[in-house]
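TICKET: design request
STATUS: open
ATTACHED STRUCTURE:
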């Protein structure tokens, strides 16, 4: 019989191996689709700048934008029009953003299911496809969520509006304002934001795939339980630590935070473990 110390060591090793595999696969999926999200932000930049360049009422004086001096400031009336302008940009770019996110989800959901199938050593013929009722139900509720897409677009809109307001307060010229808009859509901050979106969507669908496959095991009459698992470093949030403190709980029981499985928020690095319930 293995000693308690050996049992704990094996448990830690297994947990680390599962976490490493999950993280690697989630990151690979996110990386494969990152460019699609970055392209959406790039398209938004071009659409915004097209309107910014050719809306002459945004600038004082009768001369067209192409003839204006670089130091000439933007007209304060510009801010009044940004909501209407952004609405048009949002309408044109939302389908591409939604397609990018759905593509991530369609790849990550079955990948997560397959990871758990392999981990629990189920027959290789036992597959989980997107036509599975649990997958269909998840996509109907979460897939390419319009609310989530709208949230991404609203964040961009408010960032753009804040930038224009800052430019007006500081008396930025057209050229300087244009440079700051470019940074907003094409700079390092946007790259990190696109990575966060891709990683979050990959993690969410991957963990949902794990949970869906575990659910199919329950359908076969096998009782399952789960445990929230953190990365055990100083970046772990208090809420995630509390969830891990729940230990092994019934599969349908919510964690302390109210979440059924990770991620709790964009950037959450936690994952769920599953096993057959112990007697």
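STATUS: resolved
RESOLUTION: sequence designed for all positions
ATTACHED SEQUENCE:
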């Amino acid at each position: 019989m293995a000693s308690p110390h050996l049992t704990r060591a094996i448990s830690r090793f297994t947990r680390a191996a599962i976490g490493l595999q999950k993280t690697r696969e989630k990151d690979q999926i996110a990386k494969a689709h990152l460019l699609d999200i970055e392209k959406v932000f790039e398209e938004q930049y071009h659409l915004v700048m097209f309107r910014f360049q050719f809306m002459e009422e945004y600038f004082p004086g009768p001369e067209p934008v192409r003839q204006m001096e670089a130091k000439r400031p933007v007209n304060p009336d510009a801010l009044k029009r940004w909501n209407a302008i952004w609405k048009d940009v949002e309408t044109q770019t939302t389908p591409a953003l939604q397609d990018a996110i759905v593509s991530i989800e369609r790849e990550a959901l079955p990948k997560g299911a397959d990871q758990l199938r392999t981990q629990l050593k189920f027959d290789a013929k036992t597959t989980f496809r997107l036509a599975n009722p649990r997958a269909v139900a998840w996509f109907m509720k979460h897939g390419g969520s319009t609310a989530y897409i709208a949230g991404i677009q609203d964040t961009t809109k408010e960032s753009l509006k804040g930038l224009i307001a800052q430019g007006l307060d500081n008396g930025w010229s057209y050229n300087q304002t244009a440079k700051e808009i470019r940074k907003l859509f094409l700079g390092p901050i946007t790259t990190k934001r696109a990575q966060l979106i891709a990683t979050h969507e990959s993690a969410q669908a991957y963990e949902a795939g794990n949970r869906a496959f575990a659910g199919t095991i329950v359908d076969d009459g096998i009782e399952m339980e789960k445990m929230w698992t953190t990365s055990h470093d100083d970046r772990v949030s208090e809420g995630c630590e509390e969830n891990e403190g729940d230990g092994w709980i019934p599969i349908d029981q919510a964690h302390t935070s109210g979440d059924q499985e990770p991620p709790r928020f964009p950037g959450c690095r936690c994952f769920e473990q599953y096993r057959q319930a112990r007697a």
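CLOSING REMARK: Confidence is low (pLDDT under 50) at residues 56-70. The first helix runs from residue 4 to 54.
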